[in-house]
């Protein structure tokens, strides 16, 4: 299958659609990580570079998550609880609940990350994994 990493990580298996992501998350009991981004957004490009170069993130993304990157909005309003800005990264657990409790560092854009926030994103990925073990 033609898997489009768009520079976020060529070793990662990316699902093509949000619906497929939900299906895979439920089936595999892994959290779904949704990255909203745009091609001509310099903040997205900077985050993408940091994301792709971080071995710990790439390894977790390959092994522990269902991964989706989107350059368009989905119809699921739960994925834009505080607006349709990019980049934003959200987690959906295998019970198909969008985790509004896994947020980044900025109160005005709860789900955005900057390149220097990579350690924070790693913590949030681990948090998403822990939530599954404790809740389900």
UniProtKB/TrEMBL annotation:
Q: Which domain of life is it from?
A: Eukaryota
Extract the Pfam families matched here. Answer: Thioredoxin_7
Molecular function via GO: dystroglycan binding
InterPro entries attached to this UniProt entry: AGR/TXD, Thioredoxin-like_sf
Write out the GO cellular component annotations. Answer: endoplasmic reticulum
Family listed = Belongs to the AGR family.
PANTHER family tied to this protein: ANTERIOR GRADIENT PROTEIN 3 (PTHR15337:SF5), ANTERIOR GRADIENT PROTEIN-RELATED (PTHR15337)
What is the official name of this protein in its record?
Answer: AGR3 protein
**Gene of origin?**
Agr3
């Amino acid at each position: 299958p033609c898997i489009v990493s768009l520079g976020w990580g060529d070793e990662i298996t990316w699902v093509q659609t949000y619906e497929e992501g939900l299906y895979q998350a439920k089936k595999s009991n892994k959290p779904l990580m949704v990255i909203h981004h745009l091609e001509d957004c310099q903040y997205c490009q900077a985050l993408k570079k940091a994301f792709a170069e971080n071995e710990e993130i790439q390894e977790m993304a390959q092994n522990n998550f269902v991964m989706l990157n989107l350059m368009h909005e989905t119809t699921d309003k739960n994925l834009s609880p505080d607006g349709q800005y990019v980049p934003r990264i959200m987690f959906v657990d295998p019970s198909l609940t969008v985790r509004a409790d896994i947020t980044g560092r900025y109160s005005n854009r709860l789900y955005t990350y900057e390149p220097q926030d990579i350690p924070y994103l790693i913590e949030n990925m681990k948090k998403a994994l822990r939530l599954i073990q404790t809740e389900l």
